[in-house]
Amino acid sequence: MMVRTIMTVLVAAALGAAPAQAQLKVVTSTTDLYDIAKAVGGTRITATHIGEGYQDPHFIEAKPSFVLQLRNADVWAFVGLDLEIGWMSLLLDGARNPRLNPGGSGYLDVSRAIAVIDVPTGNLDRSQGDVHPLGNPHYWLDPENGRRMAKLFLAKFSELDPKGTAVYDANEKAFEDKLGATEKGWAADLASIRGKPVVAWHTSWHYFGQYTGMKIVAYMEPKPGVPPSPSHLLSVVAAIKASGAKVIIMEPFYDKKMSDLVARQTGATVLVLPPSVGGVPGTPDYFMLLQKDVSMLAAALR
Amino acid sequence: MFRSVLCVAVVALSTTAGAQQAGSAPRSKADSVAKATADSLAFVREFAKTVSAPAAPARAVGGPQGATNPRMLPDFSAVGDLVGDLSPKGSTQGDGSRLGVREVELAIQSVVDPYFRGDMFLAINDQEKIAIEQAFLTTTSMPWGLQARIGRYLMPVGKQNVTHRHDLHTVEYPYVIQKFMSEDGLKGTGVSVSQVLAPFGFYQELVVSVIDRFGDAVDSLQAPDAVNKNLGGLGYSARLRNYWDLSQASNLELSLSGITGNRQTALGFTTTDGTNAVNARQTLVGADLTYRWKPLQQGLYQSFILQAEWMRQINDQGWLANPDAAGAPLIRNYDGAYVFARWQLAQRVYAGARWDTVQDPTFRGARLTAGSGVLEWFPSEFSKLVASYERRSWVGGIAEDRILLQATFAVGPHKAHPF
User: Fold this and answer.
1) pLDDT digits (tens, 9 = 90+) for B226-251
2) What's the CATH code, domain B75-411?
3) Smallest Cα distance from B2 to chain A, Å
4) Domain co-membership, A168 together with A274
5) Is A180 found in the same domain as A192?
6) Based on the domain organization, do A243 and A140 belong to the same domain?
7) What CA–CA distance (Å, rounded) separates A276 from A286?
8) In this predicted structure, what is the pLDDT of residue B31?
9) pLDDT above 90 (res A65)
């Protein structure tokens, strides 16, 4: 009798001490999606991400260990627009999780919430480089799209976990409020950026350019995904001299030597901006990511 | 009209029944009927409104509208595999060509229905003309994490055999695969089932397969019976993959494989009824180890792979009455292995080296050793140019140098990068 009582007390204590069970297991392709999903899902979800913020999201390796994350997931959220085309199908195939198959309850193509830009028209072929036929996938660098992403997570989490709707709703509102407040903080920086010419490495800064008003006058890549050639670098040098661009912006995963070479020829500054959460130190969340990008660019352009 | 009346009646009855069960306040029968009729009419009006209204858009915000493949066409793609042989003592290719189209592969791939994906690969070359390289269904919604594959596929035996030849990091398969399986790898037609496991906290995958026969039929060999006459003569294989992340940048894979089945074995003479072979059991066991390093931030420019694979071919001698008799065919077991390393020198340039050793069953087990170096250049993800030098020699002193060039190109949709 005594033993049974002690056992009952121990079990009750163990149950009481256990943290609340997360309702949804969410896996995202990038750190940006992860951070926004966490902001909306709060403690009702567990989330992991496949790519890191300092990694080229086009070329993530489909490691079998990622399969283990996906095989029990409730939600697979990805950027879409073919950003993950080089690795996503291998992981989903390996995961054998019908919820994550196209059309499944957990298959969340976040681009469906976005007003996509750079959708090619006319005849497309690979002579144009690594073009994305469905449009530019680097949409998360516009805070307005961050809001849309948060709303999409709210809808998906509420659909799969209706009991958590009020929590998700409150979290999403808190996310929007914080984003709005953060945006107000960099209004002066935006004024320094608007209308200024810059050079970018890849087409990944279009949405950011749309938001900040910076004018991208040339790309280090001659075509999307194609490394710079000497003749193309000459044309970039000419474009910088003609436009007066002061800054070359690039992601941390590209080879800086080429940008440095152009910078030496033109006097421009090479700015390694984080393209995603965790892309450089000091960008632990979506707000800090945007703040870092805006403040660094503004400082370089002043 | 009749449908509306019927609908009203059905709904009235069901609503009345529901009211009787759930109602809490007492009310008269006339009240209940009137209430039910009113509810029913409201329901029918709502129903009519619903069916006549256009479908609401599924999404509230403005992403890309509609399906991206409204006609549900499968993915069509093709790979061209061109090989040049500049070896100093003449071509070492099977067809004797110096410059040739080794193969064109056509692929048709699509989801079939909610349960299967379908993949078909047709190989076209000057020798076989057109052949079914692979054609298989893969399940997409089996329970317990199982996945089944039905059809013809590259056999999950060994590491490199599951890679299409044109996707290899070298021009040809390692010799242990060429000599123990075939020059273009081992395929089988049957059923395989796989499951991903993690009982020890790391990734494991077990694949078991049953195929119609182990290896291709040899036209010149005539056995008294078909190799698959008995179920025991079919091909049976298993592979266990084990994978560990050593760090964010490096990982290790160690796998064990085996396949067994009847294969035609030459007698060394021809009987009066034209028989010149028997069906004897052959078993192939192996282990492979792959180490990969690719720093996440600089992964576009730096990577390294070290791979080794060992196989042992075990040939049944039980059918020989007296193996030591004069004129009896030589039946032995054979070993083979290779070690391969590949360094990334620049964004699109790689250098590799391979060392091979194998007891060649086609030369009574004479040991073949080879060392080779390879330089790969990828102008894009869709084309590859390769230059390779190899020196190979057999025990007994015969040696030759080989210089091979390869160009491959792919057209069609972007596919996943092999891991």
Assistant:
1) 999 999 999 999 999 999 999 999 99
2) 2.40.160.10
3) 38
4) no
5) no
6) no
7) 8
8) 54
9) yes
- Cross-chain residue pair A126–B298, CB shorter than 8 Å: no
Asked whether the beta carbons of residue A119 and residue B64 sit closer than 8 angstroms, the reply is yes
Q: What's the CA gap between B348 and A225, in Å, rounded? A: 12
Residue A259 belongs to what domain range? 186-301
| Binary contact (A68, B198; C-beta < 8 A) | yes
Q: How far apart are CA B150 and CA B138, in angstroms?
A: 7
Minimal Cα–Cα distance from B272 to chain A, Å?
Answer: 53
Q: List pLDDT tens digits, range B102-111.
A: 999 999 999 9
Q: Which of A149, A184, A219 lies at the terminal end of a domain, its last residue?
A: A184
- A221 and A80 assigned to the same domain: no
Residue A6 domain-assigned (yes or no): no
pLDDT in tens, A1-56: 455 655 544 444 444 444 445 689 999 999 999 999 999 999 999 999 999 999 99
Sequence letter at residue B257 = S
Q: What is the dihedral of CA A235, A241, A243, A249, to 10 degrees?
A: 70
Helix (H) or strand (E) holding A40: helix A31-41
Give the neighbor-by-neighbor strand order of the sheet with A45-49.
A45-49, A24-28, A75-78, A107-109
| Residue B240 pLDDT | 98
Q: What is the CATH number of the domain that holds A292?
A: 3.40.50.1980
Q: Which residues of A112-136 are buried (b: 16+ CB within 10 A; e: fewer)?
A: bbbebebeeeeeeebeeebbbebbb
pLDDT band at B315 (very low <50, low <70, confident <90, very high): very high
**Is residue A13 domain-resident?**
no
Q: In this complex, which of B62, B298, B347 lies closest to A227 when CB atoms are compared?
A: B347
User: Cβ–Cβ of A63/B241 closer than 8 Å?
Assistant: no
Whether residue A125 is found in the same domain as residue A199: no
Q: Let me know the angle formed at the C-alpha of B168 by B163 and B174, rounded to the nearest 5 degrees.
A: 90
B61 to A115: CB separation less than 8 angstroms, yes or no: yes
Task: Kindly compute the dihedral angle of the four CA atoms of residues A190, A196, A201, A207, in this order, to the nearest 10 degrees.
Answer: 50
Angle at A191 between CA A187 and CA A192, to 5 degrees: 120
Query: Quick check: B64 and A86 CB within 8 A?
Result: no
* Domain end residue (candidates: A155, A184, A213): A184
Task: Using CB atoms, pick whichever of B59, B348, B416 lies closest to residue A62.
Answer: B416
Contact predicate B156/B209, CB 8 Å: yes
Q: What are phi and psi of B188, to 5 degrees?
A: -150, 155
Please state whether beta strands B383-394 and B399-411 pair in parallel, antiparallel, or not at all (unpaired). antiparallel
Q: A29, A83 in Cβ contact below 8 A?
A: yes
> Nearest CB to B419: which of A63, A116, A119?
A63
Same domain for A206 and A156, yes or no, is: no
Q: Can you say how many angstroms the Cα of residue A232 is from the centroid of all Cα atoms in its chain? A: 29
| CB-CB neighbours of A186 under 10 Å | 19
Chain B residues with CB inside 8 Å of A226's CB? 380
Residues of chain B contacting residue A255, judged by C-beta atoms under 8 Å apart: 300-301, 347
**Residues A101, A224 within the same domain:** no
Chain B nearest C-alpha distance from A6 (Å): 32
